[in-house]
Design a protein that fits this description.
There is one protein chain. With 799 residues, this protein is of the alpha+beta class. It is 46% helix and 18% strand. The strands form four sheets. Strands 1, 2, 3, 4, 5, 6 and 7 form a seven-stranded antiparallel beta sheet that branches.
């Protein structure tokens, strides 16, 4: 605010000063007249009206207190029940995440089983032995069979399923409520990861007669069983099972994971619970499962009758009609709050359905606990009403006495004080004018001290406050401006550093004529998490990499730098695509306290033959265009993201490139670019955009794609990094062979090793957690990947 603005704002004060001479006399005469009239009128009217006012205020206070009490009661009760319902939905959401993880493990198990059956030549024989009593208490792989299958036949049918050991043992170890993980083949064999070898001493299991097997076959997809008693006598369990099929659609078997009910029902650990609050679960049959549910034990053999476990109670069969109505509402997948009696105590039950399991979760809190703040509020309102009645009576008495005394006093003193009052009224205005002039001239340290206890004093205090605030605002503005300039400079340097880490995207390898390569990255922020890379590991091998780190900004850029360095180091060290990803995953999983991950596609092109080996770690499938066809998805095996789970092995696929064939690598920032209507660009538009560019105009491929993506987005903000890499195989002729021979005489510089301490420091400095559902490896992506793996019939593709 400038001095001109201040003078304009306080022009009214300056105007009042100019009228100072006339104001003093006018105020004196006016004050005397008004005082006499006011005192007489007020004395007559007030004394008679105050007693009527007391009666009216008492009546209004009583009515208002009753209305406030009733309204407050309803409002507080509704608020308490809404909070209880929100707590039930929050707890159900947390339990859903745990169930979602079990679903994910089950799909991962059957996907690997399908690959073993479809590509047996890739997997070595890894036999699993029958149960041995010496392994009792140890988590090991065991071979079981049904009554119609001999142990020799079971060994023959499952000879390669020992390769599932790392996955099955990891599932059984990582789930606190997982009892066992197993795969049952239609031929009668069962491979199980279990720690109770003594319970399976007979080596027999009729899996196809079990309810979980039949449920998965009938559903033709993932299914959760009802509660049943384990045939090994370990109490009640529930099972998540998924069928898997041969290429011709025939059933090959079922993969399943057992959860022990006594551990699964320990739901008090879901989140912090308030005092006098409890939680229970209700399945689709009405069985009540709470944290006090006990499951008995039994020494019955594996093929014996059911044990003596105590089955959970059934709320739907309760003798209390309100409890039965509660069970019916919960089983109808509703959510709400009901008041019922449990163990002789009135309670509120807030319930919400689980998304990934046909169960419901309920939060129970006593009515007394909910009503406690309501009753406290009612008592407070009653106390306020009593105090109000007393204060009204006392105030009226004081006012009557004060009016009598004031009437006499004012009439006597007004004549003596009127002139002094007039002078005192104009003096602060003069002082205010002087101080405002000083502020307008730029002296912001000016203090206006006016003690008149009226609007003029408030105006003076406001001007002083405005002066201080204006001075502070100017100081803060200078500080913020300097800080923004510093941050902007640092981000600009970070952007240049990240761009320098990526290889030259324009005309790389100008001396090589066997292939053409273009790449581009456009970050959503100053720095991004996407990256691409390409390099020659020898004269005849070109490596291309495309990756997408979870999150955005500086944390993603740090993780991107580590991931790029580790992967390139592995490739330059002689590792193949799958081995390079497996080694990088192991290193990135160490000390990954920030829980970040990265999706990666890596391919090795043998330049002399056109052979293209590649592996995928949860990345978006690339596009390939043959010389005589349009773009299509490159056949892909689903793979886990890097830094997501330790011990993952990444498989390789191989295809052959002919002259003119093209491969397009990209991140999900391309297909998930949204326009103003929140529509996604998608794979269909992507394929259409790049297919319109002829192979002879390869250099136009990326500019044309980016042009169409941003034209589709319009004015919508870019929310994700946009990274693309295109490779065209030209094939080798006599001239390029001579160039390759000369290039072979050069020695490549060894890549600097990754310093582990740098990786640990960078990963722990990032605080951006993954968002549930952000990973490319979620269940929808896995289902899509299984369908592609099942139905694709590429003659060139093999592991």
């Amino acid at each position: 605010m400038t001095g001109r603005d201040i003078r304009k704002r306080f022009s009214l004060a300056a105007y009042a000063v100019r009228l100072r001479r006339g104001i003093e006399a006018k105020v004196f005469r006016l004050a005397l007249r008004i005082t006499l009239i006011a005192v007489l009128a007020t004395a007559i009217i007030s004394v008679s009206g105050l007693f009527l006012l007391r009666a009216s205020m008492s009546r209004i206070s009583t009515n208002l207190t009753g209305q406030m009490s009733e309204g407050s009661r309803k409002s507080l009760e509704k608020q308490a029940l809404d909070e209880l319902s929100q707590e039930a939905r929050a707890k159900a959401s947390l339990l859903d995440e745990h169930i979602y993880l079990i679903d994910y493990f089950a799909y991962m198990l059957v996907d690997e089983s399908e690959r073993i059956l479809r590509y047996p030549e890739v997997y070595p024989q890894f036999p699993v032995e029958p149960p041995e009593s010496s392994n009792d208490g140890r988590l090991v792989m065991q071979l079981l069979h049904d009554d119609r299958t001999s142990i020799e036949e079971a060994r023959r049918d499952s000879a390669r399923f020992g390769n599932l050991g790392s996955i099955m043992l990891a599932i059984a170890q990582n789930g606190p409520d997982v009892l066992s993980a197993y795969v049952s083949l239609e031929s009668g064999s069962t491979i199980i990861a279990d720690s109770d070898s003594g319970l399976h001493a007979s080596g027999s299991l009729n899996a196809k007669q079990r309810p979980w097997y039949r449920a998965a076959v009938e559903a033709e997809d993932l299914a959760w069983s009802e509660i049943y008693e384990d045939t090994a006598g370990r109490g009640f369990v529930i099972t998540c099972s998924v069928p898997f099929y041969a290429k011709d659609g025939s059933l090959d078997g079922v993969g399943a994971i057992d959860l022990k009910l006594s551990r699964f029902s320990d739901i008090s650990g879901i989140a912090e619970l308030t005092e006098n609050t409890s939680i229970f679960l209700l399945n689709s049959q009405g069985a009540l499962i709470d944290e006090d549910s006990e499951v008995g034990s039994s020494d019955t053999p594996l093929d014996g009758e059911a044990g003596n476990a105590e089955k959970p109670g059934n709320l739907a069969e309760s003798s209390d009609s309100k409890l039965r109505e509660l069970a019916e509402a919960m089983m109808d997948d509703k959510q709400g709050v009901r008041q019922v009696a449990l163990d002789g105590e009135d309670v509120y039950v807030a319930f919400a359905p689980l998304e990934n399991l046909d169960w419901n979760l309920a939060v129970v809190q006593s009515v007394e606990k909910v009503m406690e703040p309501i009753r406290l509020g009612e008592r407070s309102i009653e106390a306020m009403q009593t105090q109000a009645h007393h204060a009204i009576t006392q105030a009226i008495s004081v006012m009557v006495a004060a009016l009598v005394v004031a009437a006499f006093t004012i009439i006597v003193l007004v004549a003596l004080l009127s002139r002094r009052f007039a002078h005192a009224l104009t003096a602060p205005i003069t002082l205010l004018r002087q101080r405002v002039s000083e502020i307008a001239s730029g002296n912001l340290d000016t203090v206006i001290a006016i003690d008149t206890s009226d609007e003029i004093e408030d105006l003076g205090a406001s001007v002083s406050s405005m002066s201080r605030e204006l001075k502070e605002h100017i100081r803060n503005l200078n500080k913020v401006t300097a800080e923004r300039e510093r941050i902007g400079a640092e981000l600009s340097i970070a952007t240049r550093i990240q761009n320098a880490m990526l290889p030259q995207a324009s005309s790389p390898f100008p001396e090589r004529h066997e292939f053409r390569l273009v790449a581009s990255m456009q970050a959503a922020k100053e720095v991004g998490g996407d990256f691409y890379d390409f390099f020659l590991i020898d004269d005849d091998t070109l490596v291309v990499i495309m990756a997408d780190v979870s999150g955005k900004g500086v944390p993603a850029a740090l993780f991107m730098a580590i991931s790029k360095t580790v992967i390139k180091h592995n490739a330059m060290g002689g590792m193949g695509p799958g081995e390079a990803l497996s080694s990088a995953n192991k290193l990135l999983c160490e000390s990954n306290s920030a829980s970040m991950f990265v999706t990666v596609f890596i391919g090795y092109l043998t330049i002399s033959t056109g052979r293209f080996r590649y592996a995928n770690a949860g990345h978006t499938p690339p596009l390939i265009r043959r010389s005589d066809a349009g773009f299509e998805l490159l056949p892909m095996l689903p793979g886990m993201v890097l830094a997501g789970l330790e011990g993952i092995r990444y498989r390789e696929l191989v295809t052959s490139l002919s002259r003119g064939d093209e491969i397009l690598l990209y991140t999900d920032g391309v297909t998930e670019m949204a326009n103003e209507r929140h529509e996604l660009f998608g794979e269909e538009r992507l394929i259409h955009a790049v297919s319109n560019v002829p192979q002879s105009q390869f250099e136009r491929l990326l500019p044309e794609l980016k042009s169409q993506v941003f034209a589709f987005a319009g004015s919508a903000e870019q929310t994700d990094d946009l990274t693309v890499l295109a490779l065209q195989f030209v094939a080798c002729d006599a001239s390029c062979a001579e160039d390759a021979r000369r290039l072979g005489e050069r020695k490549q510089t060894d890549m600097t090793s990754v310093i582990p301490s740098v990786m640990t420091s960078s990963m722990t400095s990032s605080t951006t957690p993954p968002v549930h559902g952000e990973s490319d490896g979620d269940l929808n992506s896995m289902r899509q990947a299984r369908r592609i793996s099942t139905h694709t019939n590429q003659g060139e593709m093999h592991e």
